[in-house]
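User: Hand in any protein.

Assistant:
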Amino acid sequence: MPSYTVTVATGSQWFAGTDDYIYLSLVGSAGCSEKHLLDKPFYNDFERGAVDSYNVVVDDELGDIQLIRIEKRKYWLHDDWYLKYITLKTPCGDYIEFPCYRWISGESETVLRDGRAKLACDDQIHILKQHRRKELETRQKEYRWMEWNPGFPLSIDAKCHKDLPRDIQFDSEKGIDFVLNYSKAMENLFINRFMHMFQSSWSDFADFEKIFLRISNTISEQVMNHWQEDSMFGYQFLNGCNPVLIQRCMKLPENLPVTTEMVECSLERQLTLEQEVELGNIFIVDFKLLDGIDVNKTDPCTLQFLAAPICLLYKNLANKIVPIAIQLNQVPGDENPIFLPSDAKYDWLLAKIWVRSSDFHIHQTITHLLRTHLVSEVFGIALYRQLPAVHPIFKLLVAHVRFTVAINTKAREQLICKYGLFDKANATGGGGHVQMVQKSMQDLTYSSLCFPEAIKARGMDNTEDIPYYFYRDDGLLVWEAIRAFTAEVVDIYYESDWVVEGDQELQDFVKDVYVYGMRGKKASGFPESIKTKEKLSEYLTVVIFTASAQHAAVNFGQYDWYSWIPNAPPTMRAPPPKVKGVVTIEQIVDMLPDRGRSCWHLGAVWALSQFQDNESLAVAVLGWREGLHWPPVALLPRVQARRRECCLGPGHMPTTARTTPPPPRPPAPLHVLIALHPAAGH
């Protein structure tokens, strides 16, 4: 009688094991076996982390095994079970693996097929086609679209984390509880005594050190020591937390009436401002998105204020980017002066602080929340709805979006909701952040997520003209590594463009993203369908890069750059100055966040910069590209930050090229792809 060896692997997360009865039956091309109870005498089966083996003897030849049916029946109380995989050794000695990697709840039947990736056109057997269709029908009932706020990309239909499908929940909800994490941050930072001191101002800049020095690092200390310098101010637009706004100025904006006479003391080449623009030496950061955004009014005892600055920057003879003019609101006029480096010290310092505060708001709500978290959630939901687990594209992408939906749901539950934690310390809380996302949706285009195109669109692609832009340099290398890898995967499973166009599951996935995620807006440039292998490779690169490299680059350095409060104030408690020559150091300190909001801000950026215990840092050997820094710093923010330090130049850190020597060149081509989930660090 044919005998099969069945090996069952139970997950290692908490409560993954079960005491319920587990039955197995085999479905083959020649017949189906009876149900077999998987049980060994005097042995506790299916414990957490266990790998158990059983002999299953069948009466007749089953032929090629196509499916495995798992039934779970109650022993005493319903006991959920996380099944990783089942490996089957056939009578011929062949091994077949049936991956599961999901929770089995209640008294239910789960049907598994072998783990080989297949397109729909590769499945010619009716029972496999039926399994594929039923899996998607079930998923589409579980993963439903919902509009959280008008104008937002659609999100998962779940009011809280526990409403999510079990398979995409975090193993421990405590790990992503924002209230708990913030409280833990306060404790770790030893700032509990300050966190309720709202409306209580700091005495001076040095007073901020009371909540800073307990947990500091090399980057944050450098920021504290050099934040007032123009070179540090300009450097952050290239390699800080928000290196995506700066662009080459092709023409001076009409609403910034700056002249050569105003800035001639900053122009080192003895040229006019217009000539410097023509030579490509002038850059601009325009915060017009903040114009008209409602300010946070959730605390009637504290008035909070926003600005919508325009900042003009200059590449000097040392190839450093420095600010040369700042206008704090969009409409020019007598009460909206242009601040200059030649102004009084505190006038110029306050203008730069307003810009840094505005940059913080754009970073948190648009660069981080919208353009990584919410976009990745769209990809994730569409993936689960339209691609079965056996599809090669599902296998490729699922690790990158696994926890995205869960962390976003928790954020909507606790962080960015009405009266959420975001309202406590941020001037854009209380609804302003919602308005920002709604306004920014018109700029959320497919091309803006294609890293090389986004860099080129801002005129920041010339490496010789704009050195020290490590976000660009490493990002392009990582983008190319991912693109080359996805191209190889596409080549394996798609013989021609016709096969891509004919893959209906793939087309449904792309259409779901366009119709629901981007709300069917043609102006977004998101494709409604994909017809070539090249475009498919690019699309997959966008998904992976956004969820991994881009998120890591703009998230994990937050404590490094934002922990020194004056460098990134989350709110300002007085309006922008309307005249020059009246600002004092005392006024600046009074404008900055009070003690309570400073502590909430510090706890937030500390918590957001941490890694989850179950975060996946998967380093896959995929191919090497000439010049790729080791490790690839666009994906490892701590290393990226370290490299930033090393290139600040005299007076900051030694100008070394690397902190550690590079490894020897591998004998065979290698790339490095590091997958960091957006959920990690929250």
